[in-house]
Amino acid sequence: MNAGRDRYLAGLEVYRVGGAVRDALLGWPTVDTDWVVVGATPEEMRRRGFRPVGRDFPVFLHPETHEEYALARTERKSGHGYTGFEVHASPEVTLEEDLARRDLTINAMAETPEGELIDPYGGLQDLEKRVLRHVSPAFVEDPLRVLRTARFLARYAGLGFTIADETWALMRELTESGELAHLVAERVWTETEKALGEPEPAVYFRTLHACGALTVLMPELIGSGAELDEALQRMTRLPDELPETERSRWRWARLVERLDEADQRTLSESLRLPRSYRELGWQVALTRQLAERDTPDADTVKAWLDGVDAWRRAERVAPLIALLALETPALATRLERAWREVSRLEARALLAEGFRGGALGEELARRRRAVLQREMERR
Questions:
Q1: Which residues participate in ATP binding (predicted)?
Q2: Which CATH class is domain 1-122?
Q3: N or C, fewer C-beta in 10 Å, the chain?
Q4: Is 260 annotated as belonging to a binding site?
């Protein structure tokens, strides 16, 4: 977009900033474009037709493109956690001051609408060196930056990125300061869910563990070091047929599948997990327990189907069996056959035979067990 040809932006000092600049330089796909406006006031933005959307600082949506335009601002630490900042936005704030409040140098670059790069903190050099480096010592004022740095490493580790030694030191300092405990669960989960969708999500958890943050935020995952390593390796083993939109949920489920019900519940509550993540985590755990039985009998298989609510949510079964096929293909084949046969039993057929009320439920359960026993005993 050329601000000089945009009547809404004519005369404004506008810069493209952050991730769009970084990813364009890397040749990485750019999803969203953010802009900073220097020297303007909220009143002027509204007069030009921009719609305010920011709650904590002045952000406006373009009347036609709906891209975000934020007024240049500075931040000053005033309390604990991610929200403990006083924001100052005014026409006097310079672009360099706005960029200085950002977390990493690679995120602190700007570009004019004509494509001229503005890089006061060495972001381009760090991109070329494949280094994640903090912009300033103010990095330690925001504990969320520990998680963001780990997430960016999960995204770019395949390109050879590492974290600068001095940034590692600040991440450990933030962990030891107790600031991480002030992060609200929703912010921790937002970063974690984004990390689950990155190319190398295991790097996120390894990074948090290495700086001590995992002990504070998700201690249930750690166990012994070997258990965590095994869990992170499992995250990469998913059925090929899973849609891309489902992979984050399944990665999480594989990460927590060896946790018992109490630890899963504690972790879910501390992170305020969405229901779909909580439920899948436990379904995969039940499937793991089934796989650990040498020769599961009809009662065990029926208990598993009951546990994953298969009779009402039949769509859950096939992907769980596909997951089993990765490690116990023979069992998966038998279960697939047994599920196919037992699924043919319908309550309405029993109604036609005269079963009603409790007798109907008992007979349906009896017949299901009989089919499962027959199929699981077949070779």
A1: 19, 22, 102, 148, 151
A2: alpha beta
A3: C
A4: no
